[in-house]
Amino acid sequence: MSHRILITGSSGLVGTALISELASRNVRIQQFDIRGGADAFGDVRDSQSVQKALQNCDGVIHLAAISRVVWGERDPDLCWSTNVDGLRNVLDAAASSPCFPWVIFASSREVYGQPLILPASEETPLQPVNIYGRSKVEGEKLVDEARQNGLRACTIRLSNVFGTTFDHADRVVPAFARGAVKGDALRVDGANHTFDFTHVDDVARGIALLVEHLLAGKSLPPPIHFVSGLPTTLGELASLAIRIARSNSNTLIAPPRDFDVARFYGSPTRAHDLLGWTPFVGLKEGLTRLIQAFSEEKEVCSEEAVLP
Q: Rounded CA gap, 247 and 184, in Å?
């Protein structure tokens, strides 16, 4: 008998990859996304819609969020109502469901702010420096409270997930990959800023392993990183994209944004110890795949442009 899982934010980068990964493991998916179609539309800020979507589900993977730091800075009220109040609706719906579903909450490396010691572990103090990070810290507090009240809920933390062309165009990895393919200048806001870039296929596989862990009735884990564990500066990322694409792009070095974390990379040890998870797709391989995909899209657009 297959299990049924609700994925909020199912139309996003991670949600889309996760649907394919779980389908291969005989898990049925109920999609829920503000960008979804008639059978998949849903807004996590609407508590009744959340309750309806969660009916007859064994668990929920809560990905829906205002997912960009810059978007949170532009509209902090929307960020809070979506990321905090939306999560509260999910936890309340799960707590009241007769199916007793578990909840996986997708948090972020932004909860750490600027760690003093790197690589960061899951025990690194939470000291967010922007509204997005603060909303995720508040979400983790809600998960902890729900656990104390008997709900099977846990937190995962993600970092700079990348890997497909339908990602948000202004996120740094797809922006550099697309720009390198087109030969555009790559704007680097803080060339020495360092991040942990993790391929979406690895993240989806990690979450799927956690889903199997919970469906098997095993103990609730503490917060878990799904990160590569490898630091890369934005300057190095831009240079790598240009080199892989064999591009004539140049880089425009700009000052860092004042609401961004300057340096982060995390340890994947806990995910390996608890779930046997290890990232397989390195940055160079993942970026090569992405650049190839953008190149193919560019060729298709060029062919369509010359059709009579």
A: 9
User: Does residue 305 have a pLDDT over 60?
Assistant: no
3-state helix, strand, coil in the chain (%, to 5): 45, 15, 40
Distance CA 90, CA 253 (A): 42
- Cα separation, 274 vs 224, in Å, equals 9
Pairwise CA distance, residues 102 & 6, whole Å: 10
Condensed to tens digits (0 to 9), the pLDDT of residues 202-242 reads: 999 999 999 999 999 999 999 999 999 999 999 999 999 99
Radius of gyration (C-alpha) of the chain in whole angstroms: 19
Three-state DSSP class for 233? strand
Dist. CA 263–CA 257, nearest whole Å: 13
CA 182 to mean position of chain CA atoms: 26
* Residue keyed to tokens 């070095």: 253
CA distance 132 to 129: 9
- The domain made up of 3-163+198-229+266-280 has a fold known as Rossmann fold (3.40.50)
Domain ranges of the chain: 3-163+198-229+266-280
Of the pLDDT bands very low, low, confident and very high (cuts 50, 70, 90), residue 187 is very high
